[in-house]
């Protein structure tokens, strides 16, 4: 009887379960806010709030361990909030602008994705790097950084620590290359528009493209963002291809594994259509709405990355990260050269 009573005492009441869930979500929000604060310090401001928040989450995990009691709320942030952020992210994609630029730009965007993925996979196999992280970094480099990694990791069922590690590496590498681009811009034989296209075709995140494209003036920055958003658009067909390949792989291996379709990708498409053809043509002050949504999207994405970062151990980081960092550095240089001759 004593053992039964002890077991019953361990069961948490519903109110306590909800409060712990809220505590977990709130905990990711707090670290996210601290990440924003850290990103205002010179040096860290180049990396961005998302990478700073992941760094704080990893540091917390090493010092205090994983906060098990509030795990449910943390997992909600790392999974559900992340998917909601990706849906909102669709508003940044103006499909009409991309289509008006012609298919030529989309073809070049597709070549960029193919090049980045092929180079990362090939180098990863040659150097025997972690295949999951290598593939996620290839997608992040070729498409749109953290958002692409989040979508593809859901399809590939990647480990959360691999996803967090990939996001941190992509943020670091993108920052390094975007700053380098701004230094090189005055000596490059490119017009502002050509430089903008080059930045949009080769850099990792939208934020990195904006950082590098701004010194080229409004025309250069506009073309940089258009070229980048074309790569974002191609995330949809890439995801469908990966879903098909995962299903075929399981069929060939006679595995009865279920491949979950990332339905939040449908929300991403719908929000893109809404932003392109409804919000963009309405009398509503769409820029204010877009700015607010963009801020909310970035905050939710940062909070989700905190949840992922709490799964990373420094021991795993030392074992897994060195080779992928080397590979993405080499791939990013090769991609910069490749796209330079495409402009």
Overview features:
343 residues; mainly alpha; 78% helix; globular; disordered N terminus
Question: What's the short story on this structure?
Answer:
The chain is 78% helix and 0% strand.
Q: What does this protein look like?
A:
The protein has 343 residues and is mainly alpha-helical. The chain is built from 17 helices and no strands. The longest helix has 25 residues, at 14-38. It is globular.
Could you say which overall geometry the principal axes of the C-alpha atoms support?
A: globular
Q: State the order of secondary-structure elements, H for helix, E for strand.
A: HHHHHHHHHHHHHHHHH
Overall average pLDDT: 83
Instruction: Output the radius of gyration.
Output: 21 Å
Helix fraction bin: over 70%
Poorly predicted tracts of residues = 1-9
Strand content: under 5%
The largest sheet is: none
Number of helices: 17
N-to-C terminal Cα separation, in Å?
77 Å
Number of strands: 0
SSE-based structural type: mainly alpha
List strands and helices in order, with pairings.
Layout (H helix, E strand, L loop, with lengths): L1 H9 L3 H25 L10 H16 L6 H19 L5 H6 L2 H25 L3 H12 L2 H12 L3 H25 L7 H11 L3 H8 L3 H17 L1 H18 L11 H14 L8 H24 L4 H7 L1 H19 L3
């Amino acid at each position: 009887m004593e053992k039964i009573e002890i077991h019953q005492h361990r069961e948490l009441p519903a109110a306590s379960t909800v409060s712990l869930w809220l505590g977990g979500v709130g905990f990711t929000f707090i670290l996210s806010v601290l990440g924003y604060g850290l990103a205002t310090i010179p040096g860290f401001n180049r990396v961005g709030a998302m990478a700073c928040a992941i760094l704080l989450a990893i540091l917390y995990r090493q010092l205090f361990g994983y906060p098990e009691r509030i795990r449910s709320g943390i997992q909600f942030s790392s999974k559900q909030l992340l998917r909601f952020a990706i849906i909102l992210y669709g508003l940044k994609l103006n499909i009409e602008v991309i289509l008006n630029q012609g298919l030529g730009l989309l073809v070049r965007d597709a070549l960029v994705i193919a090049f980045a993925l092929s180079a990362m996979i090939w180098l990863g196999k040659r150097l025997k790097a972690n295949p999951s992280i290598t593939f996620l970094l290839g997608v992040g480099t070729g498409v749109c950084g953290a958002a692409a990694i989040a979508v593809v990791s859901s399809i590939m069922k990647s480990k959360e620590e691999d996803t967090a590690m990939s996001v941190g590496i992509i943020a670091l590498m993108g920052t390094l290359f975007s700053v380098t681009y701004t230094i090189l811009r005055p000596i490059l034989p490119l017009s502002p528009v050509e430089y903008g296209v080059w930045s949009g075709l080769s850099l990792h995140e939208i934020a990195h493209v904006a950082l590098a494209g701004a010194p080229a003036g409004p025309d250069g920055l506009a073309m940089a963002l258009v070229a980048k958003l074309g790569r974002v658009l191609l995330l949809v067909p890439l995801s469908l291809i990966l879903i098909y390949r995962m299903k075929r792989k399981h069929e060939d291996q006679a595995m009865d594994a279920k491949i979950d379709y990332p339905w939040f990708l449908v929300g991403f498409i719908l929000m893109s259509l809404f932003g392109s053809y409804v919000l963009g043509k309405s009398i509503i002050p769409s820029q204010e709405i877009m700015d607010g949504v963009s801020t909310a999207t970035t905050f939710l994405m940062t909070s989700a990355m905190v949840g992922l970062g709490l799964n990373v151990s420094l021991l795993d980081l030392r074992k897994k990260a060195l080779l992928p960092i080397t590979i993405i550095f080499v791939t990013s240089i090769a991609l910069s050269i490749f796209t330079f001759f495409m402009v």
